[in-house]
Amino acid sequence: MSELKHARSFWDLLVYQKAKKVSRKVFELTREFPPEEKYSLTDQVRRSSRSVGAQIAEAWAKRRYRKHFISKLTDADGEQLETQHWIESAYDCKYITNEQRDALMADLSEIGCMLGSMIQKADSFCLTDKPIDKNNQ
Question: Is residue 62 within 8 Å of residue 69, measured between CB atoms?
């Protein structure tokens, strides 16, 4: 195992950047949702969309341990799937257009594929297990 050479932080990961863009799109779209949805659909879809990037950031922090890294990426994938559910609900309620739904679903699906690829290639992201030097903690 060796540390990924081209990404120095989670900020450099394309999947993180895409997740951030989706959460911004969701935020902008939900500004137009009816006030009665503020504490239900609006809140739910905003939380799940924002959580995708947060879980990716947490995975990056846990990449010293392959299983923890994969677990956090799996959580990120679960959040993007939850976001898909809420987007579909917003569409069913006619809060967003078919075009808006399709664009978000395509973005979320791409994020899911990227997360799946990272999980499959976890060893290329994870740090080499090195003994801790007690003098340089």
Answer: yes
Domain ranges, residue 68: 10-123
Q: What integer is the mean pLDDT of 24-53?
A: 97
**Inter-residue contact 61 to 76 (CB < 8 Å):** no
Is a pLDDT exceeding 60 seen at residue 7?
A: yes
* Overall number of domains in the chain: 1
Q: Are 30 and 46 in contact (CB under 8 A)?
A: yes
Compute the distance between CA of residue 77 and CA of residue 74 in angstroms, rounded to an integer.
5
- The torsion angles phi and psi of 92, rounded to 5 degrees, stand at -60, -35
- Average pLDDT of 23-31? 98
Q: Quote the pTM value.
A: 0.88
N-to-C CA span, the chain: 22
Give burial (CB, 10 Å; 0-12/13-18/19+) of 75.
Answer: middle
CATH number at residue 34: 1.20.1440.60
Contact 14, 114 (CB under 8 A): yes
